[in-house]
Amino acid sequence: MAWTKKYEPRSLRDFVNQKDAVEKFLVWVKSWKPGNKAMLFYGPPGVGKTALVRAYAYENKLDLIEMNASDFRTAKKINEIFGSAMRQRSLWHRGKIFLIDEVDGICKEDVGAINAILKIIQQSHYPVVLTANDIWNPKLSVIRNYSIPVQFKKLSVWDIVKRLEYICQKEGIKVEKSVLRELASRSQGDLRAAINDLEVVGRGKKEITQKDLQVLGFRDKETEIFDALKMIFKTKSPMAAKLAIINVDRDPQEIFWWIEQNVANEYEKPEEIAKAYEALSKADLFRRWITIRQNWRFLVYMMDLMTAGVATAKKEMYRKFTRYEYPQRIKMMSLTKSSREKLKQILKILSEHLHCSTKTVLEEYLPFFKLFIKDPNFKKSLYKILDREQIEFLGLNKQ
Ligand SMILES: Nc1ncnc2c1ncn2[C@@H]1O[C@H](COP(=O)(O)OP(=O)(O)OP(=O)(O)O)[C@@H](O)[C@H]1O
Ligand SMILES: [Mg+2]
């Protein structure tokens, strides 16, 4: 049996982190009544969306009625599996829980399937959990109205090491923590991938060393986003630009930041940069409406503007190699405590000079400093108010 299956959590005690999600789920499931909304677990692969429902059902001796949404194409199949289970009481009066896995696998055109799922949600006498990777997926727009979204996050290296350590102990494998740490960081927050890697290097072994890791090719998740950026920045076709992000397994918000960060690295003509930023600022408006009003209809506009809008801002393709860089905004969000202090200090200084809040500096001004600093006057002024170390901290010294 594959280790991911063998070590699937059988109770919430075995379940690693996802504290917010677990808490929301427990409150919801314990007070659930017929007619209530379903719960929609979403987030990256391999972080416990499916595993949480299974562990809960196992621990509470519930019948788990499970189906993978991509297995069916027709409403008939759904009704076969769920139809009778939906209303009947279990044989031994055991409770039930429904799991409709990977709902983003349904075709948008398959209205039958979507309607059948809605029917299950509305008529079920037991709680229904749906899972998806991408909650922003337009296919899910109707389902979203009938469910409560719950986000699952990438797991930390620390979380993953903890689980890998447990598995090694059960398998009787001796291993240095540094090796597990490397395995964990390779997996980029995906515990399934980490356990699979561990199985590849460790099955049947008594010990795993650093050298054993060489058999694993480096799984580079970053290439995916770089390819998408290249497509958007190089093409002039709106359609090609839109398609570029379809298979990128990231939040649209995050993709937005990648594009925003790199516009000025790729484009050189001021009027093109200005046009691209204009499209991005409009995209950002839609993003805010989506967040505030939970109105997912705006998502397509946001995506079109940030892809096609940026792609068509240029007159001609730049025939050059651009090294794309990691978005400053994501870096800022994952700062350590001492770095956060440093940032706070910088924001304070800037807010005084710009006469606005530190929040405004962070969100509205900082992203564009990289562009502004190309102007010698701006550069000179900035060096007057910040010291070298602070400018380095903002990554502006290389410009
Ligand atoms: N938080 C977790 N705690 C314990 N084990 C986990 C956790 N997340 C993942 N795993 C392990 O990884 C395997 C895969 O996890 P799971 O099936 O829950 O992923 P998922 O989030 O549903 O991903 P996908 O989006 O690909 O369906 C599980 O069988 C389990 O062994
Ligand atoms: Mg799953």
Name the descriptors.
single chain, 399 residues, alpha/beta, Rossmann fold, Helicase, Ruva Protein, domain 3, 4 domains, five-stranded parallel beta sheet, two-stranded parallel ribbon, 19 helices, binds adenosine-5'-triphosphate, binds magnesium ion
SSE topology:
Blueprint: H1 3-6, H2 19-30, E1 38-42, H3 49-59, E2 63-68, H4 75-87, E3 96-101, H5 111-123, E4 128-132, H6 141-144, E5 147-151, H7 157-171, E6 174-175, H8 177-186, H9 191-202, E7 207-208, H10 222-234, H11 238-244, H12 252-266, H13 270-293, H14 299-311, H15 328-333, H16 337-354, H17 358-372, H18 376-385, H19 388-393
Parallel strand pairs: 1-4, 1-5, 2-3, 3-4, 6-7
Helix pairs in contact: 4-5, 7-8, 7-9, 8-9, 10-11, 11-14, 12-13, 12-14, 13-14, 16-17
Magnesium ion is lined by residues 49-50, 101, 131.
